[in-house]
Design brief:
heterodimer; A: mainly alpha; Formate dehydrogenase/DMSO reductase fold; globular; disordered N terminus; B: alpha+beta; Alpha-Beta Plaits; 4-stranded mixed β-sheet; 10 helices; disordered C terminus
């Protein structure tokens, strides 16, 4: 971060003042950085693939996407582990994370989120074991007790799935509640944050599944393209309305005015918007006509990369404002 | 009992006695502050005035830091103080994101969150907070807000209409009040921070959270391989051997 730009932030945005700080201590810079961005981004993929799998199974026969039953839980399992790993490494006392389970404080959305995400990961692990054991009958041989138990309880998969979809909603959105509880950062106090989290999950989930959809039916791929196109459109529209039009507090306005005026993160923000929303929208639309799989995969990649940058900017910019 | 603070900014002369007393009493490490006095110059030369604003934790009745803390490391004492248990803190920095007053810091020695506790340990022994004792002009007024005859209650009654809190729009119900403050002094958006304008220190932003020599791997390895104990002496050595400080324009 360019310190000179950061320190000029307020002077560039607040008028009618001749007051200057002439002696103060150095104040905090960005406290929650890119580690938290990875955390949010990975969680979007982890819960998004669950939403998308449920949607596709509702719309199409399972034969249209035979590998989804075991690939979805693997993608979710890996993403959620990345999410939890980055949660852990962001803690200054990582071994004390156990305190969240031993001394939970239930008014904290961090606590509620950690519990929900842990239960969610546990259920995903069960789905992954059953899905993989069913998909690969020779896996583990005849002596492996784990695969034997999994195969004998194969129907548990379908019983767990509805609960998992409902659980994915609070797991997706609790980060928005954390942001709402972060009352020092007014930019995050918008009700749209919850919807942004859901759009991000749909974006990331559809993008992740597009990469493994080569052998699936055309109708399924079209649905994935449709969800990706819709979610990037609505997410973009919400960001733009927040960025340009929405009612804002003085603090949020000062933050956004600084980005508007070409300050730090301006380029990253528009780079993320272009890559994450504008390009995938047009590529997704063109896929509907051309059915060009390469275009669709590029749209998915672009959406995932752009989403990371946009989340990173939105996380960091309100932290640049002096609080006292 | 509900303990509260009031600072009469008309009396404060910016001597920083309270800041130093707090540092000494609570052994607050270098690069961090529980209480600080900010100087703000208002007006255009030669028609200028300088104001001094002591800033500390507001011990809000509706404290966002207490609400967001996932392990109750931040908790209320019976006397209304928002206290912190550093042995329980996991260092998630949620409280730093929640506090609208920027009053919480990551202690570089313990890598846990810390803040002003109104000197809870002194109050337990019947003493006043260190900053109150150190103030030469009695600008810091401390006492029980529930007691109509306490100094602070009488002071508030006497200055009715002129008593302010910082950021009332946040609905945090601070128990820390100011008399003689204005928008320029209490609203951080109403004054500029221009690099190079500071009197003794040109570093405007910290470039690290907690101990900068304690990276992500150290956090995991420290219990097994041991971590060199960081104290003020080692922090001074690390600061004076680094070129970056000069690059920041520090003296």
């Amino acid at each position: 971060m360019n310190k000179r730009e950061v320190t000029k932030m307020v002077e560039s945005t607040i008028h009618a003042t001749q007051a200057v700080v002439t002696l103060d201590v150095p104040i905090q810079g960005i406290v929650w950085g890119s580690i938290i961005t990875v955390n949010m981004w990975a969680k979007s993929i982890g819960t998004g693939v669950v939403f998308l799998a449920a949607f596709l199974w509702f719309r199409h026969s399972k034969d249209s996407m035979p590998s989804l039953r075991w690939t979805m839980p693997i993608i979710a399992f890996l993403s959620l582990n990345v999410f939890l790993l980055f949660t852990l490494i962001d803690l200054h006392q990582p071994y004390r994370m156990v305190n969240i389970f031993l001394h939970p404080h239930w008014t904290s959305s961090i606590t509620v989120g950690a519990w929900l995400a842990s239960i969610f990961l546990g259920l995903i692990t069960v789905l992954m074991v059953i899905g993989v054991a069913d998909a690969f009958p020779s896996l583990g041989g005849k002596k492996c007790k784990l695969t034997a138990i999994a195969r004998n309880n194969s129907t548990v998969y379908e019983k767990i799935m509805p609960f998992l979809v409902f659980l994915a909603i609070p797991v997706t959105t609790y980060t928005a509640i954390i942001m709402a509880q972060s009352s020092a950062r007014e930019l995050w106090q918008a009700p749209t944050e919850v919807m942004q989290m859901i759009w991000a999950a749909l974006m990331a989930g559809s993008a992740a599944l597009i990469f493994i959809s080569a052998s699936w039916s055309k109708e399924v791929r079209k649905d994935l393209a449709l969800v990706l196109t819709f979610s990037v459109f609505f997410s973009f529209a919400m960001y733009m309305s927040e960025y340009f039009f929405s009612f804002k507090s003085a603090e949020a306005e000062a933050v956004l005015a600084y980005v508007h005026s070409g300050g730090a993160f301006n380029i990253e923000f528009w780079f993320g918007m272009t890559l994450g929303f504008i390009i995938p929208f047009f590529l997704g639309m063109s896929y509907m006509k051309s059915e060009n799989m390469t275009l669709l995969k590029f749209a998915a990649l672009s959406a995932l990369v752009g989403l990371f940058f946009v989340k990173d900017v939105w996380l960091k910019i309100p932290q640049m404002l002096p609080l006292s | 009992m509900k303990l509260g603070f009031l600072v009469d900014l008309n009396l404060c002369m910016g001597c920083k006695g309270c800041e130093i007393a707090c540092k000494v009493e609570n052994e607050v490490p270098l690069s961090t502050w529980r209480l600080r006095v900010k100087y703000i110059d208002i007006g255009t030369f030669p028609d200028t005035s300088r104001s001094f604003t002591p800033l500390r934790c507001n011990h809000c009745e509706n404290a966002p830091c207490e609400r967001i803390c996932p392990v109750s490391a931040l908790h209320y004492l019976e006397n209304g103080i928002v206290n912190i248990d550093s042995a329980r803190c996991i260092g998630c920095a949620g409280c730093m994101m929640a506090c609208p007053y920027g009053a919480i810091y990551m202690d570089p020695e313990t890598n846990t969150a810390d803040k002003c506790t109104y000197c809870a340990h002194r109050i337990e022994s019947g003493m006043m907070p260190a900053c109150v004792v150190a103030c030469p002009v009695e600008a810091n007024i401390f006492g029980d807000l529930d007691d109509d005859h306490s100094n602070i209650s009488l002071y508030i009654m006497e200055h009715q209409g002129g008593v302010q809190v910082r950021k009332p729009e946040k609905h945090t119900s601070p128990t820390h009040f100011y008399v003689g403050g204005g928008n320029q002094t209490l609203n951080p958006l109403a004054h500029q921070r221009i690099e190079g304008y500071n009197l003794f220190n040109n570093i405007t932003h910290l470039d690290h959270v907690g101990d900068k020599n304690h990276g992500i791997l150290d956090r995991f390895l420290a219990p097994f391989v041991g971590h060199e104990k960081v104290d003020n002496t080692s922090l001074i050595e690390s600061a004076t051997t680094e070129d970056s400080h000069e690059q920041e324009g520090g003296h």
